[in-house]
Each structure stands twice: as C-alpha cells, then as structure tokens.
Design goal:
3 helices; 4-stranded antiparallel sheet; alpha+beta; 126 residues
C-alpha cells in the first residue's frame, strides 16, 4: 500500500507525462494534493509558445476565451486516459474532473473527485 506522498508523487509524474505527450509541453512545476476524496493538481508553466503568442496577439478576452475553449476540449478528449491513470494510482474510480487555466500566469488546475477517499498507509512522523 502506498503512502499519501507516494500517491501524490505518482499523480504528478503521470499528469506531467500526459502534458508532455498530449499537450506538447510538460509543466515547469507540478504539485498534487490528496485531500479526502479529492486530488488537486497544480501545474505551472504549461502554456506553449504558440498559446502564449495567441493570447498576446488577439484581443485579450478573445485570446483568453479561445485558449480556454481549446484546453477544455483537449481535457475532455483526454478524460478517459486521465481517469484510468488516477484509478491505477489511487485504486479508486474518478467521479468527476474539473479544469481551468490562467492565460495570465500559465497556471493550470485540475481537480479529480474520486468515488471515495483512497486507502493509504500512514507515514511515521519523526
């Protein structure tokens, strides 16, 4: 049985690999947090050069909206892969997936709601 930290590290590795292979660029920084039946993943530095250019050249709200629509569609298309990844790591089915990205900071948040809190072994405090 994995510890909470091992689950979080495996989620970071899997989501980072997904971003690199599926979106074309891995995050500069990634952190996952297991909170009961939620897995919150925070990615920083995920915008590709093309996405950054798109946001800069179009009217601010138009570029932002277009980028968010494309990213949302890509996440929905990849949803079965991400849900399978989370189930493999946590041993629990994914109930829902929520996603947003900031065009200003290049930060992306992905929240997975699991059917139940995953089991993990407690780590000893020093």
């Amino acid at each position: 049985m994995k510890s909470a930290g091992e689950i979080e590290a495996a989620v970071c590795e899997g989501v980072s690999r997904f971003e690199l292979e599926y979106m074309g660029r891995g995050p500069k920084d990634i952190h996952a947090h297991l909170i009961g039946d939620l897995v919150v993943v925070r990615l920083q530095g995920v915008l590709t050069a093309a996405e950054q250019q798109l946001v800069k050249t179009l009217q601010p709200e138009k570029g932002r909206d277009l980028l968010k629509q494309v990213r949302t569609q890509l996440m929905e298309t990849a949803r079965p892969f991400l849900e399978a990844l989370l189930k493999e790591i946590t041993g629990v089915e994914v109930l829902s997936l929520h996603h947003d990205i900031s065009t200003m900071t290049g930060e992306e948040i992905v929240v997975f709601t699991l059917v139940e809190a995953p089991s993990f072994r407690e780590t000893r405090k020093k």
